[in-house]
Amino acid sequence: MYGVKINGIGRAVPELELSNQDIAEFIDTSDEWIESRTGIKSRHISTGETTTDLAVMAAMHALKDGDIDAGSIDLVIVATVTPDSTMPSTACLVAKKAGIKNATCFDISAACSGFIYASEIAVSFIKQGNYKNALVIGAEVLSRAVDWDDRSTCVLFADGAGAAVYTRSSENKIVNILTASDGGGSDHITLPTLTRANRFNQTEMSSKYMEMNGKEVYKFATTAVPQNIQDVLNGTGYTPEDIDLFILHQANSRIMDSVAKKLEVDKERFFKNLQDYGNTSAASIPMALVDAKPYLKRGDKLILSGFGAGLTWGSMFIIWD
Ligand code: ACO
Fold first, then answer.
1. What is the largest CA-CA distance in the chain?
2. Does 99 share its domain with 194?
3. For the segment 50-76, what is each residue's pLDDT rounded down to a tens digit?
4. Does one domain contain both 135 and 55?
5. How far apart are CA 143 and CA 145, in angstroms?
6. How many CB atoms lie within 10 A of CB 97?
7. What is the domain range of residue 124?
8. Global pTM?
9. Does ligand 1 come within 6 angstroms of the Cβ of 217?
10. 48 and 162, same domain (yes or no)
């Protein structure tokens, strides 16, 4: 088995920044409601940037950050629930635009846990010796998946991309990854895809937008995430108290505070940037990692943790290099 480490990270967001006040100009909401319930103050929304555009920009930043030549990338995985097309995959489009040739490229769908799921696949493949340099990207344009007349979702979700390059290494810095799911909760967050109708079937879908049962998601996240973090640390010799920084999926400030409380860890050790970006689903963890980087030092112990539609969840325990 080979070791693996993160060797470059990057992020990208659309140019347009939309504050809570900006949204309150066209729907019945307020800065006070959004910030007190979620912690979000602002977000970036596409005025034309595609999921692929954002993914490519984040990937280029990650390659530059790690001083890695595009030609040495042999695996590209994009986690997204808002691909520009079902085929070709976003990963193939990223490879084309980033100058990556002959790599294995595919997309995965695990909603807000997508970056952790994709990382588990990439890290396992590298550890087995199949690949040397994997580009893992979480990228979303969720602004086209929400109903902009539905104040319960459109204030939460936003657009962005984050990328990480995982590289084969003599020292292993990705200590453990643990993912899971519960299809029993599949109704709690949904986003339909193509029409169901065909020549022989006129069934149409009831909604074409994202729908969420916020209370159920809140209950699920505040139960599954602390347990998953305990489980990923199990057998490593470390406890939550030993972790320098927790980088959770940036869905909701209150979810993070509740997880901190359940783990009996100071909530200041939970990194937050959702105030500036909202919930960018699969992109949020690598985007937060980029913003947290100035505060990290070599040897820091980090937990990255995602949760979302499926229901899906997963955590990674890594040592920062
Ligand atoms: N502005 C003003 N009022 C609003 C808004 C809004 N944007 N949205 C809802 N309301 C109103 C509702 O209409 C309701 O009014 P009513 O009582 O007159 O009917 C009232 O506020 C309370 O609505 P609730 O849905 O009960 O609000 P709640 O306190 O549960 O907060 C929230 C909603 C923030 C979504 C909360 O449930 C939550 O944080 N859930 C977790 C959701 C989440 O994080 N999802 C993402 C993770 S998974 C993923 O990323 C895919």
1. 60
2. no
3. 999 999 999 999 999 999 999 999 999
4. yes
5. 6
6. 16
7. 3-172
8. 0.96
9. yes
10. yes
Cα–Cα distance, 61 to 289 (Å, whole number): 13
Is the pLDDT reported for residue 207 higher than 90?
no
The β-bridge relationship of strands 189-190 and 42-44 is unpaired
Single out the catalytic residue among 44, 188, 249, 273.
249
Mutate to test the pocket of ligand 1, among 35, 37, 43, 147 (most ligand atoms within 8 A of CB): 37
- DSSP conformation letters of 255-284: HHHHHHHHHT--GGGB---HHHH-B-GGGH
pLDDT above 90: residue 269: yes
Residue that terminates a domain, selected from 172, 203, 237: 172
Instruction: Return the pLDDT at 201.
Output: 84
Beta strands at 312-319 and 301-308: parallel, antiparallel or unpaired: antiparallel
Q: Which residues fall within 8 angstroms of residue 151, CB to CB, at 6 or more apart?
A: 27, 28, 29
Domain of 237: which CATH number? 3.40.47.10
The reply to whether omega before 286 is within 30° of 0 (cis) is: no
Domain boundary, last residue among 172, 193, 215: 172
Helix (H) or strand (E) holding 12: strand 3-12
311 contacts 182 by C-beta, under 8 angstroms: yes
